[in-house]
């Protein structure tokens, strides 16, 4: 398997006060890596900031070695990481919520914290909830399961419809159901003394807590009181444990005690709400003992790891042993089998619906199905995160302390692959792997060593070749981030995007509408790698829905269709004159308050700027296609959906200009009698008749636009990420090596054109020039899109507030980054 990149953490001290250098890591559904570093850290002055605001510590500030720190980074910009928090307590648990929005931290001492990014900014984190279990050590934590799941089956990659390709997990139930069976949010904790703690996140306070601003915290930290319950009849000292949700909604927990090394105890923990509905309900925990695993003679071995997971609807526990005298380690797989046990005739009795004797009773037992000897001590175990249909599409990754990774096949535990990283040597200072985790689609394995240095390796399922398209569609259906899939298919994106678009257009209309936002976000990331403009279509779609939401029919009783539907019907007649179309419409249906129209002027300007740039570049794009004989995978001037949306918006702008002339777009013209809206609508109507092959007269008229008025130059955002044309060339060249907090020059875009306002920052959401050095902005960490911080304060009208509310997340799916 290919080693993709390594990030050297030179800022982390090589000394540690802890007897063992422990680094925890976890990857979220949005491909954000969280890791804890238990060493002291010293950062350069260029990354200064207050330690409490989520940024990195200031220049020359050596944080005390007794502190533990939590950082996050994106897998497409792994050299840039951001601080979440610091604590004097030792972090023992690091866990993401299922949607990747919340980060749970568990400490030695019993404190649990849940952090969230403020305003979806990856470099600004705030504490929202905390709970305390006094005098206990948190050793395992799990967020409540929401009861949703999608089965990944590579055998169905040739099916057309998403409903056939991706089956929902029907038997899966939520961990805790509220009123109406709705899944509740919360966490379950397990302490080292065998004490269970659970708490649910209050929905009302959760909503108010999300309303922080960039200027200061607008929320209060909520203290939660957990419900407590002993997992067994008596308390015990738990050394190793594992927790996973089961289809029934309960949590399956396996653990081993310090004085009972030959016994792995298994429990089923279920949660429920007790109390009358409408009154205050409290959480109740129920723990039931299940079939346990009784191991044979250990011969000096000690259990080092436990991992309970589900593979193809089967419960599986992986048990790792540390062999004595440094003789490596052993890994065993145990599977829960269910059998029908025959019952003696004297004990059968009458039972069942028809009073027939019970001849069989179901029994459960754990069976060892595989075993493998490893040459080095085991650092961590990772299992494919996809809900696979058969064990053939699942793999086990054994991360060893000799800086190597072995890929094993479930059940047989046969070695499929072995990858050796930097070998241990005296000059390496004893750096060894300590933890690792897979990305949501299980395409990349991310590993941390004892100095918190990050390694990324390709980890595709070896038996599912050619399923890149299926994985991208899986990400569209589940909402997971697809950056890891794109990074491993950079050389094949052109064919993938063509098949992806073709398959998406074949889906039923209701399916396309439901997944349209996920599809646009994924396609924008693909087109960005190919240096093609796709973000304009996403913004155009958002503006179109916002403008149409302002329309109200003048007479509700006599209209079967809304104003937007009537407009689409009129435009289907291909009338080239915008005023003629306007006369055939009822102007009352398009009446909007003049004050509201004034607030939308910048968005109206953006629409006409897009149409103007698209038509201006059309002759050049046609000439490029003829010379190269190859069409780009996406061109907005050939997209009939985008052209139709522009024509609809131009008619609405024309009508609104009669209500308030201040909302019309402004241009510098060579002659005063030029009507920009009329010209744009006429040219777009002719282009809509044959977007694939525009006629020569249309191209001639488009080439004259630059002589009639000054055409504004579009703003380009060129961030430095691995998901770019430069990133494709770098990944193709071989293993990459980055230094933390240093932007690699090999990925920077050096071919940025010098245009008007090139040194100015433009807000991509409100279409405003912010100047050369704006004080506070938010920039997308992946696509570079800019959004002002105080947008919600500036918005005075309901239309503008609705517009800004669409941008809680960036359109590409990335987090915002606060820039000062």
UniProtKB/TrEMBL annotation:
Location(s), subcellular: Nucleus
Domain Mediator complex subunit 16 C-terminal intervals: 724-818
Pfam short name (any one): Med16_bridge
Main localisation: nucleus
Keywords: Activator, Nucleus, Repeat, Transcription, Transcription regulation, WD repeat
Keyword hit for Transcription: yes
Molecular function terms, GO-annotated: transcription coregulator activity
Domain Mediator of RNA polymerase II transcription subunit 16 central helical bridge intervals: 471-656
Summary of subunit composition and partner proteins: Component of the Mediator complex.
UniProt-recorded name of the protein: Mediator of RNA polymerase II transcription subunit 16
Species whose genome carries this gene: Drosophila simulans (Fruit fly)
């Amino acid at each position: 398997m290919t080693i993709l990149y390594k990030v050297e953490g030179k800022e982390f001290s090589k000394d540690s006060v802890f007897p063992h250098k422990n680094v925890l890591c976890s990857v979220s559904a949005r491909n954000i890596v969280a890791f804890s570093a238990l060493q002291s850290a010293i950062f350069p002055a260029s990354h200064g900031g207050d330690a409490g605001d989520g940024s990195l510590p200031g220049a020359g500030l050596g944080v005390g070695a007794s502190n533990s720190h939590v950082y996050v980074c994106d897998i497409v910009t792994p050299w840039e990481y951001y601080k979440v928090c610091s604590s004097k307590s030792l972090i023992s648990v690091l866990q993401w919520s299922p949607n990747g929005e919340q980060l749970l931290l568990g400490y030695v001492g019993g404190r649990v914290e849940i952090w969230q990014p403020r305003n979806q900014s990856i470099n600004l984190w705030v504490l929202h909830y905390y709970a305390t279990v006094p005098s206990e050590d948190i050793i395992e934590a799990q967020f409540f399961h929401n009861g949703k799941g999608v089965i990944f089956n590579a055998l169905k990659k040739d099916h057309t419809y998403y409903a056939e390709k991706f089956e929902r997990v029907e038997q899966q139930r939520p961990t805790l159901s509220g009123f109406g069976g709705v899944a509740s949010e919360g966490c379950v904790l397990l302490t080292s003394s065998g004490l269970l703690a659970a708490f649910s996140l209050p929905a009302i306070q959760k909503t108010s807590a999300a309303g922080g601003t960039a200027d200061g915290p607008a929320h209060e930290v909520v203290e939660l009181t957990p419900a407590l319950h002993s997992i067994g009849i008596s308390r015990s000292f738990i050394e190793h444990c594992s927790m996973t949700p089961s289809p029934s909604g309960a949590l399956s927990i396996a653990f081993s005690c310090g004085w009972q090394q030959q016994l792995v105890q298994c429990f089923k923990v279920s949660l429920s709400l007790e109390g009358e509905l409408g009154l205050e309900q409290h959480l109740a925990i129920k723990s039931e003992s299940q079939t346990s695993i009784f191991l044979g003679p250990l011969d000096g071995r000690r259990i080092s790891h436990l991992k309970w997971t589900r593979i193809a609807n089967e419960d599986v526990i992986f048990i790792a042993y540390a062999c004595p005298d440094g003789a490596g380690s052993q890994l065993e797989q145990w599977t829960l089998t269910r059998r029908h046990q025959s019952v003696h005739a004297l004990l059968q009795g009458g039972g069942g619906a028809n009073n027939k004797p019970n001849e069989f009773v179901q029994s459960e037992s754990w069976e060892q199905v595989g075993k493998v000897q490893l040459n080095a001590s085991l650092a961590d175990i990772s299992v494919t995160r996809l809900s696979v249909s058969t064990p053939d599409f699942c793999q086990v990754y054994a991360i060893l302390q000799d800086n190597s990774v072995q890929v094993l096949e479930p059940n047989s535990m046969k070695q499929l692959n072995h990858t050796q990283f930097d070998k241990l040597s005296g000059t390496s200072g004893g750096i060894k792997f300590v933890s690792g985790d897979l990305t949501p689609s299980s395409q990349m394995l991310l590993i941390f060593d004892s100095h918190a240095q990050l390694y990324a390796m390709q980890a595709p399922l070896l038996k599912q070749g050619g399923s890149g398209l299926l994985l991208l569609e899986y990400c569209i259906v589940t909402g997971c981030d697809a950056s890891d899939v794109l990074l491993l298919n950079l050389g094949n994106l052109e064919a993938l995007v063509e098949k992806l678009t073709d398959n998406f257009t074949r889906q039923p209309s209701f399916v396309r509408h439901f997944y349209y936002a996920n599809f646009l976000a994924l396609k924008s990331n693909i087109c960005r790698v190919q240096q093609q403009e796709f973000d304009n279509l996403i913004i155009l779609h958002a503006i179109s829905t916002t403008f149409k939401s302002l329309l109200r029919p003048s007479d509700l009783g006599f209209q079967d269709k809304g104003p937007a539907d009537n407009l689409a019907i009129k435009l289907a007649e291909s009338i080239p004159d915008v005023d003629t179309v306007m006369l055939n419409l009822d102007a009352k249906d398009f009446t909007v308050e003049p004050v509201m129209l004034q607030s939308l002027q910048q968005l109206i300007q953006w629409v006409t700027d897009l149409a103007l740039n698209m038509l201006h570049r059309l002759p050049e794009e046609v000439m490029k296609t003829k010379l190269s004989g190859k069409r780009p995978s996406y061109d907005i001037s050939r997209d009939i959906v985008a052209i139709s949306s522009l024509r609809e918006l131009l008619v609405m702008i024309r009508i609104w200009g009669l209500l308030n002339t201040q909302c019309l777009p402004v241009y510098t013209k060579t002659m005063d009698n030029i009507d920009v809206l009329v010209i744009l609508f006429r040219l777009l109507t002719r282009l809509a008749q044959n977007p694939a092959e525009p006629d020569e007269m249309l191209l001639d008229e488009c080439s004259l636009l630059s002589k009639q008025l000054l055409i504004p130059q579009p703003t380009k955002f060129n961030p430095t990420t691995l998901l770019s044309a430069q990133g494709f060339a770098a990944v193709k060249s071989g293993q990459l090596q980055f230094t933390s907090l240093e932007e690699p020059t090999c990925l920077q875009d050096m071919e940025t054109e010098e245009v008007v306002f090139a040194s100015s920052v433009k807000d991509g959401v409100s279409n405003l020039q912010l100047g050369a050095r704006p004080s506070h902005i938010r920039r997308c960490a992946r696509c570079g899109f800019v959004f002002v911080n105080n947008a919600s304060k500036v918005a005075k009208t309901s239309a503008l507030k609705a517009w800004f509310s669409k941008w809680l997340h960036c359109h590409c799916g990335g987090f915002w980054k606060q820039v000062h």
